[in-house]
């Protein structure tokens, strides 16, 4: 049984239909297709030279969005099939020891698919290579529709562009799985990508979106709502504004509940029953960033970063709860800075909020330059997990931990609201 992919026509070859691929894995082929669109080399030795040659493509960039033809949602529609049911060797890569699918691998595939969707929207058939550098800005939302992804059943990915600004694009993707004779929903994902020049240094204009039906207008309007919500959340960040009155009261009450009534001293603090200090709910990791994990722009692949962050967050939730957690939602994965090849990537996971059977985990990643010893934040990830029993409450001690607690509480509320 062969893997199939549906993508729009490119370089004279019709990819608008399903066609057979003999590669070991569909998304290996997909990433090679992205390299062809951009003009990047699969050979590490030639990679730097290939990217340097892209600078000449700047002449093909539009000076305004009005110069670019409008594209429809159908122009960017992509469908990919992952044949886990018929390819045992492929299945091994996606299998976890719980006899389910490794969700981190699905995150990698979603990131690759989102990039391809956006290149399909911006593709100019008159050019052999795209002058745009399209990179992931953030993962707005991933909502899980089922708890178990079977390791021996085919998976289908579909998606298309749903909203565009002048230089940014929203792509929505849907994942389903063939089981018991029919496809059932697995998850819905919303990624936001940005277009930049060939050297990935400044913003570049993208094609406007042509809406062809009332349904498409409704989809686009939801994209506008998503953008407004992101702006509001950004301006309300606790890194920019002080906590609201009710949030300050909450933190004050948490503090008072940890005071030792026998000493009534700020230095003497005790935990209530079934509680854990936030300091004791951490887990850390380190990755050396090798060329194998590079993307088409010679940086570390965003999907790889998401997979590593998810796996650390899952392990943290598992150790904290003492049982296997189930992912409920992924929120606001922000890509602040690219990760260069050769970097030391430090990952820090923190259980920052719990409520009932839900665990909110924040994973912070940063790169360390071993020569200058400087740290730079690259990503922040938020994961919501659920277990089948009530779990301890995490309690902050410092002001910084209190801000993480409030942020986690807000993320938890958003996860349940939009899931």
UniProtKB/TrEMBL annotation:
Fetch the InterPro entries from UniProt.
HOTDOG_ACOT, HotDog_dom_sf
**Protein name in the entry:** Acyl-coenzyme A thioesterase 9, mitochondrial-like
Q: What is its main location?
A: mitochondrion
The UniProt entry, under PANTHER family, shows: ACYL-COA THIOESTERASE, ACYL-COENZYME A THIOESTERASE 9, MITOCHONDRIAL
Q: Which family does it belong to?
A: Belongs to the acyl coenzyme A hydrolase family.
Q: Provide any one GO MF term from the record.
A: carboxylic ester hydrolase activity
Source organism's superkingdom? Eukaryota
Q: Where is the HotDog ACOT-type domain?
A: 76-199, 279-391
Q: Where does it reside?
A: Mitochondrion
**GO (cellular component) term, any one:** mitochondrion
Q: What GO biological process terms are annotated to this protein in UniProt? A: acyl-CoA metabolic process
Alphabetized, the UniProt keywords read:
Hydrolase, Mitochondrion, Repeat, Serine esterase, Transit peptide
- On whether Repeat is a keyword of this UniProt record, the answer is yes
- Transmembrane helix among the record's keywords? no
